[in-house]
Amino acid sequence: MSPAKHTSAGPAGTTDMLTAPAVHYLLFAEATIDPSLGGSWRFVLENVATGETFSATDFEPIECHERLELLAVVRGLEAIDLSARVTLVTKSRYVNRGLKRGLNDWRANGWQWERFGRVVPVRDHDLWKRVDRALNYHQVDCRLWQFGGEVEAEPAPVMQEVEPVVVATPRRGRFTLAAEGLRRATQAAGLLTDAFRPSALAAG
């Protein structure tokens, strides 16, 4: 699924290139840790213009919830095969703060930082480097999302807009997330997609 591109002959032997704007995707990423099954990540990509969706999930031998959340984002961004505009929706303050406050400094400092008086590698620098590479191709806007009933120290911004995705071949996964996680992720994706459809944005 690729954006349309049209080439036509212009005056005086020139060539006019008409290229469709970048596709806009909603990327919903989350992670869970089950005491019996271990850690799992999941992402859902949705093309807001067409409603086409693509999702993937798998288990990982990782016990750190924040690293799993970041891995879900990495997998989602790497599943987009062409340059796109991406609205990332996450419950993770770790991911949100890293994208908005840390990434530029970490890159400039060679992926190291000072911690307790010592210069050490940035936490999860291997995954943050993959996010940084993805930002060379995609325009990413990160939105912090809360499910009803969940309390955070800081209020999450109200979602105001979203759009589509070019999907890649699904990554191999042998398991699905718990039923409750799937239900909540699907519900949230549906609400966000309705809010970002062109008709809804025009009405606002």
Mind explaining what this structure looks like?
The two termini are 29 Å apart. The protein has helices spanning 65-78, 93-108, 125-134, 179-196, 198-203; strands at residues 5-9, 15-19, 23-34, 38-47, 53-60, 84-90, 112-115, 118-121, 139-144. It has a single domain, classed as Nucleotidyltransferase, domain 5. The protein is built from five helices and nine strands; from the N terminus they run βββββαβαββαβαα. The longest helix has 18 residues, at 179-196. It has 204 residues and is of the alpha/beta class.
List the helices and strands and how they pair.
Elements: E1 5-9, E2 15-19, E3 23-34, E4 38-47, E5 53-60, H1 65-78, E6 84-90, H2 93-108, E7 112-115, E8 118-121, H3 125-134, E9 139-144, H4 179-196, H5 198-203
Helix pairs in contact: 1-3
Could you give the count of β-strands?
9
Radius of gyration, rounded?
19 Å
Number of domains: 1
N→C terminal distance? 29 Å
Structural class category: alpha/beta
Low-confidence stretches: 1-18, 149-182, 200-204
H-E order? EEEEEHEHEEHEHH
CATH topology: Nucleotidyltransferase, domain 5
Mean pLDDT, to the nearest integer, reads 75
CATH class: Alpha Beta
Oligomer: single chain
Percent helix among the residues?
25-40%
Number of helices: 5
| Major β-sheet strand ordering | 5-4-3-6-9
Summarize this entry quickly.
With 204 residues, the protein is α/β, with parallel strands linked by helices. It contains five helices and nine strands, in the order βββββαβαββαβαα. It has one domain: 2-Layer Sandwich (Nucleotidyltransferase, domain 5), CATH 3.30.420.
